[in-house]
Write a structure and sequence with these properties.
alpha/beta, six-stranded parallel beta sheet, 34% helix, 21% strand, Inositol 2-dehydrogenase
Length: 398
């Protein structure tokens, strides 16, 4: 009886219906589906997918599930997998080709875009040929194996008037994009320190590592991109310590453990903690600290609402995500939708050419610091800048 006086005499049906919080991005998608919300009847994009390996399988899954695209071609050189891929995904009307037959994709006027998820050393050739054939391009990083050839790819995209999108998927992760928005809104003031932890699980195969482009251009570019995207500025010097604890990785001249310090012109300090081998799951954390407080994005747990307790050892919580396809599943899906919107001209790409080129330059500086044990200054964060007219110009003359 003590709480009777607090009884609400007004029915909840007579009150305004509460709105879902913006953080519930899945409910927002549900509402769009439920109300059949769409801006206009846009044509379905016809796609070709190059490569069905580590990243390609993720993109294939999202392409098959997306009502806004139709997969027409798959280009992959492991022909022994073709029948299994066709049967598993029910791709009865998809044409399978080897890389030697890829001209069929470029010469097909019905193909609107290609998704490049093949090995790193093949990216530049596919990107250039697809653009020259007037196809939009979605490419896993890197666009090319060095900044000069990456510039040429962007120049080709500008000349033909088709989008070239570099797939830095972490920008589309809901938690990371929320942190970026809150930092840019000034919630913690001027950022003093920003930190990332990225420890890979499981340990990649040696065959993959040998063709990946190395830990700096394969792994660390994601953290560099994430930090510079959140801050909206590029570092002017870096200091790196790196080591190979795993003999097989040391034997191929690469590293498995790296710590990077970055200094930004505004005075912000950055830190990146990277490992190729985490025994406890895919460890991905972000912390941004300023005079007004701190914002973090911690590890996600698949079954975060379930705990167990046996004996006196205390509660046991579920593990974190095992690897990148599960941890960044939502980011990959949102990334594809963003690319579709870019191709349709509905939005501008949030991954700009000058940002991609800057990340390449910074990663190269980090590699130099690791090899020389010296602080490396980056006086020109990128040798090329995208002008307002779409041209690429030398930073010295810009």
């Amino acid at each position: 009886m003590a709480t009777t006086k607090f009884r609400d005499t007004v029915s909840p049906y007579s009150k305004p219906r509460p709105s879902p919080p913006p953080e519930d991005y899945l409910h927002q998608k549900y509402l769009s589906d439920l109300t059949l919300k769409q801006d206009a009847r846009l044509p379905v994009l016809k796609l070709a997918l190059f490569g069905v390996g580590r990243a390609g399988t993720i993109h294939l899954s999202n392409i098959v599930a997306n009502r806004r695209v139709k997969l027409v071609y798959i280009v992959d050189d492991i022909e022994s997998k073709w029948a299994s891929i066709k049967n598993y995904w029910h791709l009865d009307d998809v044409i399978f080709l080897s890389s030697k037959q890829a001209d069929k994709v470029y010469n097909d006027p019905s193909i609107d875009a290609v998704v490049v998820a093949s090995p790193t050393f093949t990216h530049e050739g596919i990107v250039r040929k697809a653009l020259e054939a007037k196809k939009a391009v979605f490419c896993e990083k890197p666009i090319a194996e060095d900044d000069a050839n990456s510039v040429k790819c962007y120049e080709t995209a500008r000349k033909v008037g088709r989008p070239l999108f570099c797939a830095f998927n972490r920008r589309f992760d809901p938690s990371y994009s929320s942190v970026k928005d809150r930092v840019r809104n000034g919630e913690i003031g001027h950022v003093h320190v920003i930190k990332t932890v990225a420890r890979d699980s499981p340990l990649p195969t040696l065959d993959y590592i040998k063709t990946s482009g190395g830990i700096f251009h394969d792994c660390i570019v994601h953290d560099i991109d994430l930090i510079t995207w959140i801050l909206g500025e590029f570092p002017i010097k870096v200091a790196v310590q790196a080591h190979a604890h795993i003999p097989e990785i040391k034997a191929i001249g690469d590293y498995d453990t790296v710590v990077i310090s970055l200094y930004f012109p505004s005075g912000t300090l950055g830190s990146i903690d990277i490992s190729r081998n985490s025994a406890y799951g895919y460890d991905q954390r972000l912390e941004v600290f300023g005079p007004k407080g701190m914002i973090t994005a911690d590890n996600e747990q698949p079954l975060h609402c379930v705990t167990t307790q046996y004996g006196y050892a205390g509660p046991t919580t579920p593990p974190i995500w095992y690897s990148f396809p599960s941890r960044f599943a939502n980011g990959y899906r949102r990334e594809l939708d963003h690319f579709i919107d870019v191709v349709h001209g509905k939005v501008e790409s949030i991954v700009q050419p000058k940002e991609t080129l800057a990340v390449i330059k910074i990663a190269t500086a980090c590699l130099e610091s690791a090899r020389t044990s010296k602080v490396v200054e980056i006086s020109l964060f990128c040798e090329w800048i995208l002008g307002e007219d779409g041209g690429l110009y030398s930073a010295q003359s810009a």
